[in-house]
Amino acid sequence: LLSLNLIPVASSDHPLSIKNNELGASDLMNFPHIVLRSTFDSGEKSAGILSGASTWSVTDFQTKKRLLLGGAGWGTMPDHLVKQEIKQGKLRRLSTRAYQSVKLDFYLVRKKDKILGPAASYLWDRIQKECIR
After folding, report:
1. Which of 10-14, 25-29, 54-58, 111-115 has the highest mean predicted lDDT (pLDDT)?
2. 17, 83, 98 from 51: Cα distances, Å
3. d(CA 133, CA 112)
4. Buried (b) or exposed (e) across 112-131, using 16+ Cβ within 10 A?
C-alpha cells in the first residue's frame, strides 16, 4: 500500500540537536525516547525502542509531534509528517548510528479462497484502484 520512512528527530533547541558531532547510544539514553504505543500484540514490546532508554508512550503521531516540538525528548517520526517543521528549523534530524532511519512497508492481504461480502469487496476493489494510481 505504502512505505513510511521514520527518521530520528528532536526539537531544534533540544540538547541532542545542539551537539555538532554524531550522537551515540549513550547520548540518546540521557533523554526520554518518545514512542508510539502499539495496539498490536506481537509479543515484542520493545520493537523500535532504544534498549535501556526511558520512554514516554503516546497513542498517536500528533501527540508525539507536539511533545517533540516542545523539547520533551527525541523519537522517530514519518518524514512526511515533520518535513515542514524541519524546513522551518523547529525540528532537527538527529545524526546517529545508534538509531538509524527505518523504512516500513505496509501491505494489504487477503485469502484468495475466502469469499468477501459486498462491503469488503467494494473496499478491496477501491483500495486496489487507488494504489494503482
Report:
1. 10-14
2. 21, 27, 10
3. 23
4. eeeeeeeeeeeeeeeeeeee
pLDDT of residue 124: 87
| Rg for the chain, CA atoms, rounded | 18
Contacts of 107 (CB under 8 A, 6+ apart): 1
The secondary structure of the chain as a DSSP string is: -EEEEEEEEEETTSHHHH--SPBPHHHHHTS-EEEEPP----S-S-TTS-TT--EEEESSHHHHHHHHHTTS-EEEEEHHHHHHHHHTTSEEE--BSSS--EEEEE-----TTSPP-HHHHHHHHHHHHHHH-
What is the per-residue pLDDT across 80-104, written as a single tens digit (0 to 9) for each?
999 999 999 999 999 887 777 788 8
Q: Are 34 and 75 in contact (CB under 8 A)?
A: yes
Q: Read off the C-alpha cell for 109.
A: 492481504
pLDDT exceeds cutoff 60 at 46: no
d(CA 48, CA 4): 14
Supply the pLDDT for residue 88. Answer: 98
